[in-house]
Amino acid sequence: MSDLPLIHADRAVPPPAATTATGGGRGRRLRLLSGTDRVVITLMVLVPLLLVLGLVWLPAGATVLLSGTNWDGIGPIGEIDWVGLKNYDDVVHNYPPFVPAVQNNLLWLAALFVVATPFGMFLAVLLDKELRGSRFYQTALYLPVVLSLALVGFIWQLIYSRDQGLLNGVFGGETDWYGDPNVNIWAVLVAAGWRHVGYIMLLYLAGLKGVDPSLREAAAVDGSSETSTFFRVVFPVMRPINIIVLVVTVIESLRAFDLVWVINKGRNGLELISALVTQNVVGEASRIGFGSALATIMLAVSLIFITIYLWTVMREDKR
Amino acid sequence: MSRPRSQAEYLARLVPPSVAGLNRRSLLAGAAATGALLGTGALAGCGDSDSGSGGDAKSVSLGSNQSDPKPKDVIAKVMDGFKTSSGVTVNVNTVDHNTFQENINNYLQGKPDDVFTWFAGYRMRFFAAKGLAGDLSDVWAKLDGYSDAFKKASTGDDGKQYFVPASYYPWAVFYRKSVWQQRGYQVPTTLDQLTTLGAQMKKDGLNPIAFADKDGWPAMGTFDILNLRINGYQFHVDLMAGKEAWTSDKVKKVFDTWAGLLPLHQPDALGRTWQEAAQSLQQKKSGMYLLGLFVGQQFSGADLEDLDFFTFPEVDSTIGAKALDAPIDGYMMARKPKSKDAATKLLTYLGSKDAANVTVKNDPSTLVANSGADTASYTALQKKAAELVGSATEIAQFLDRDTRPDFASTVMIPALQQFIKNPKDISGMLTSVENQKKSIFTS
């Protein structure tokens, strides 16, 4: 959006500008942009463009290409064998962890979307009421977001450990929180949700603070209840924030990785696509072709959400 | 000694040390000390000795993964010893252990150091076959003090040696002497005796066999030892090389036997780390534990002296109980060392008993590979472990060092965990493993 004014500025320059290009400064100086400006603008466009191409699209394209090979990371690029769609076939038909990983990613998305995100928004609304000690609550709720996920994983390990953990210690149970594949995904979702709630809470709270108070006053004058004020006035006004919260939730569930990796490297009930990619590509295993196929699948899924998001945002801009 | 070098280790790289567990770290450190001796200079890649082979090089580089302070120090001492005896300076390039292992492919294809630390096993033979490691047959002609088992473990597919062993740690069944004396348990020598003993322990309120597989690799040790006892060493090697079918009756028998033993194992193993399982042995809640010598990290003082072990009992009398897992750490040479002469000299020294003596003196947590070393300062446990390995007819390197790393980590870990979860569906699990193996080994 920030480049919109530039486009207008460009249009403001009449085509004859070309004649001044070689004029060495003697020509008409009608340009809105001086030579320095143009250099700066060119750099400002070129540098990010190169960064995006080099750091995002080039690797992404390479990943897609590599997913058609069986490269093991050894030997010159010329010796890489093309195997077509074999890796995809293997992923779907010959790789037991794949299906659970997809299910877990979806479950993750559902849990964050249905439970954690609404709860975070709810807390934000509460905190927006200027309760006594709301600073303290904010800090407490936001703290998990500040902690590194590795540390979060460790904290929950202390709570969930079967033989030495807090939960079993206090309640005297024998539940194998991290080891039982029927239980561990829920245990991890609690830990992930704990963190996600704080994040959403802060985002939403910032949005709420930005809502014009006169809107609420007007609603109150019109005799609207608190609930209907929120749902009919505040919530619609917060549309940009709502979209951001939605996107953040989707992104968080797609890229979920660190917690399960810290717990058991994404195995035994905690499979996630991102963890499978890492297992295959990183380190000695070097199943680069196969891991790239998994990564490409993930990229495709992400693109769907990104497209929807961009489409919504752009439509918004046109209005 | 530091078992985590393999599977767990490389996957654990992403986990910060604070989470990874201090105990394992310290073990690693001990192991690293030995390794450090071996691997000091490889990373340098700085071109200080450019004389061709046979030149009078004054320095040689060593790439070391021994990044913990103690092993690093031991390597430095060994390198001092080499300088004194040969006059050649060693430039040690130490790289974080995990990083080293993670980057090994790129490292060896780039400008590796003249000599570098590595492990015996498939990965060593793989690099040799790919032409990424130097032939050390002439070094081996000058080495003595190594049993045939060590030489076999240092030999590539083409029959030449590519590896100089430095240290190792055996896998065995550990127990507390005091508990066994108090209850009058006898060391089992056959599978039946083990089963009977386990039943007795259960009656006495103990977990017969401590067990943990949260990290995925410890169960490989159980599979390995059962496979070695039931089908023998050669089958293990062929199976790991992808030559034998996982769906064969031989492999099924291993899992059937294991399924019979599972009720004696500590339940809910998939949520437990090996440290926790070892602590259950230390706290006298479990009767025995099949693990590497590094289990001692969880013991200290009098508890450590109370620790003893026996080799896993015989299952098939025609196979015997003489083979075992004893992963070996050591050194290899780059394919094109800057000074082959100096690198050869260094490797010869690293394989000598002088180098081993320096290690023994400076690091009490290690078993050195050279039998000529002065091991008088070994603890009783170390001495016994050395005897056990010395009497072994064959030494396997552990599943994840004996086969392709991609197969071990992306297929075997989930499969073994699946088996532990549901020991009833053995053939379904093995069919899946075989299908994945075919896809991986033919790629």
TrEMBL record, chain A:
Domain of life where this protein originates: Bacteria
Span of domain ABC transmembrane type-1: 102-309
Keywords, comma-separated and alphabetical: Cell membrane, Membrane, Transmembrane, Transmembrane helix, Transport
Keyword tRNA-binding included in the entry's annotation: no
Bilayer-spanning residue ranges: 39-60, 106-127, 139-159, 185-206, 288-311
Any Gene Ontology CC annotation: plasma membrane
A Pfam family annotated for this UniProt entry: BPD_transp_1
Membrane topology: Multi-pass membrane protein
Principal location: membrane
Gene3D superfamilies in alphabetical order: MetI-like
Any one of the GO BP annotations: transmembrane transport
Record's subcellular location: Cell membrane
PROSITE patterns per record: ABC_TM1
UniProt cross-references to InterPro entries, sorted A to Z: ABC_transporter_permease, MetI-like, MetI-like_sf
Entry's family note: Belongs to the binding-protein-dependent transport system permease family.
Protein name: Carbohydrate ABC transporter membrane protein 1, CUT1 family
Organism name: Micromonospora humi
Source species taxonomy: Bacteria, Bacillati, Actinomycetota, Actinomycetes, Micromonosporales
Automatic annotation (TrEMBL), chain B:
SUPFAM superfamilies to which the protein is assigned, alphabetical: Periplasmic binding protein-like II
PROSITE patterns listed in its UniProt record: TAT (PS51318)
InterPro entries in the record: Bact_solute-bd_prot1, SBP, TAT_signal
Pfam families in alphabetical order: SBP_bac_1 (PF01547)
Gene3D superfamilies named in the record: Periplasmic binding protein-like II
Region (Disordered): 48-71
Top-level lineage group: Bacteria
Protein name, per record: Carbohydrate ABC transporter substrate-binding protein, CUT1 family
Protein source organism: Micromonospora humi
